[in-house]
Amino acid sequence: MDFDHLCETLRRLALAAGEAIMEIYEAPDLGVTLKADASPVTAADLAADRIISEGLRAAFPDVPLVTEEQADTHTALAGDFLIVDPLDGTKEFVQRRGDFTVNIAFVRDGIPVRGVVYAPAQGRMFYTNAVGDSVEEDGTRDPTRVGVSLPIRVSEPDNRALRVVASKSHRDAATDAYIARYEVADFRSAGSSLKFCLVASGEADLYPRLGRTMEWDTAAGHAVLLGAGGRVVRFDTHAPLGYGKPGYENPFFIAHAPGVALKHP
């Protein structure tokens, strides 16, 4: 894999998808329908998916692609593959809350080694560069010109006063009970894969997820966190979270800065 070409392509497609998403976000009708599992899908999900999937297939025709919105791509894979959630945080999008993201990642041997997370309504873009280090780019939205990119790094947490981030739309009693086992100095809610990026940028120390997620929800944020020195582990065993699982469903997990003293279930 040519990682320079890969990272340039992921960034460019994320920006293009974000532009399409924002055109629909700012329109009166979001084009909301329901999938078979009763979860919402919008015209923006489908437009972004078309842009990203066509772009990836043209740039990397020999690399398998898994994307949330195309069920025929959800077959078991091994080795290298690309994985996409064209609009993560559809509920936030529908409620016009702004913290939704475009997620594109490249997985090698079960590990998301490169990825981009773009929050177009917030103007925040996080990605791994060609050598695998994570950066946050400024508000530049020019696909032909990279803006100022600042390296990001996880925090060195004080376990007597952790900063915790959790889901905005999927909080439950089990998550609250687990968070209560820590000394918490600050708590914030966020939607979509931005939670990984807040840990990656040192704005939070701990993100536990005790709820259903799919690999396309997490791969890009996971890659960004790894590139910033962070970790994502299974909730039950604290073993690294892997990718390419049958059905692409994740177990519960914890994303964290390495200095956090994790509590066992």
TrEMBL record:
It comes from the Bacteria. Its EC number is 3.1.3.7. It is found in: Cell inner membrane. GO terms for molecular function: 3'(2'),5'-bisphosphate nucleotidase activity. It catalyses: adenosine 3',5'-bisphosphate + H2O = AMP + phosphate. Mg(2+) 1 binds at residues 68, 85, 87. It is a peripheral membrane protein. Its cofactor is Mg(2+). The keyword Flavoprotein does not apply. The keyword Transmembrane helix does not apply. Mg(2+) 2 binds at residues 85, 88, 217. Belongs to the inositol monophosphatase superfamily. CysQ family. Converts adenosine-3',5'-bisphosphate (PAP) to AMP. This is 3'(2'),5'-bisphosphate nucleotidase CysQ. It comes from Rubellimicrobium aerolatum.
